[in-house]
Amino acid sequence: MGLFDKFSKTFDKFGYDMDGYDKDGYDKKGYNKKGFDKKGYNKKGFDKKGYNEDGYDKDGYDEKEYNKNGYNKEGYNEDEFDNKGYNKNGFNKNGYDNKGYNKNGYDSNGFSFNGIHIDTKINFDKDGFNKKGYNEDGFNKNGFNKKGYNEDGFNKNGFNKNGYDENGYDLDGYDENGYDLDGYDRLGYDHLGYNRDGYNEDGYNKFGKNKIEVKDD
Fold first, then answer.
1. In angstroms, what is the C-alpha Rg of the chain?
2. pTM for the whole thing?
């Protein structure tokens, strides 16, 4: 084949010129002379500006310099809080540090580190509760002490420290002597040793007869 002038190109039967590019300027792998495909990405998946299809550079940051989790290289999001919710000064969006105190040294209930309330200037707030939430008698706003019992000695489930409710029955419905509301123990016998049908564990009633004898009477 003759010489080609500078104004013409010849393509082989596969559609590629002498340099290995098709009429659109892409090689067999789909890249142009500058190394980018038709979508504008190189072999590593980045465009001319250095960003991939998801908009992140090789270090994982977008044009605004935030990663996929929304944090910049310093570890802060657009609102200037880190992944734990604190800003550069160590306060969260509500203005409290990781120990629960604001810049003035008070927690969300108005108590200082030493337990002094900002309004009352004593260890109790205007409602009479201290930093830990208990009044002078040792009960919280729900009426329970540190051990979880109210002034009558019952917990939130209605049982005292021995496990009995105000009627004297435990969680399974038995009193301290082991009998339920109907007077039967866990084996189904009353204090005289008879079950609900009137028979003892040997099968006899209070008259000394078993079920067969009673049936025959």
1. 42
2. 0.63
pLDDT, tens digit, 9 for 90 and up, residues 51-83: 999 999 999 999 999 999 999 999 999 999 999
For residues 13-46, b (16+ Cβ closer than 10 Å) or e, as one string?
A: eeeeeeeebeeeebeeeebeeeebbeeebeeeeb
Strand-pair partners of 117: 111
Alpha carbons 63 and 46: distance in angstroms, whole number: 13
- Return the C-alpha torsion angle 40, 46, 48, 51, nearest 10: 120
At residue 217 the predicted structure's pLDDT band, cuts being 50, 70 and 90, is low
How many other CB atoms are found less than 10 A from the CB of residue 94? Answer: 9
* End-to-end Cα separation, the chain, in angstroms: 129
Query: Over the stretch 141-194, which tens digit does the pLDDT of each residue have?
Result: 999 999 999 999 999 999 999 999 999 999 999 999 999 999 999 999 999 999
CA distance 111 to 123: 8
What is the token pair recorded at 210?
């078993």
The continuous run of DSSP H or E covering 216 comes out as helix 211-216
Placement of tokens 């009673």 in the chain = 214
Phi, psi of 111 (to 5 degrees): -100, 145
Tokens 């992140």 locate to 56
Residue with tokens 């465009």: 47
Do residues 57 and 65 lie in contact, with contact meaning Cβ atoms separated by under 8 Å?
no
* Nearest one of 44, 42, 68, 64 to 54, comparing CA atoms: 68
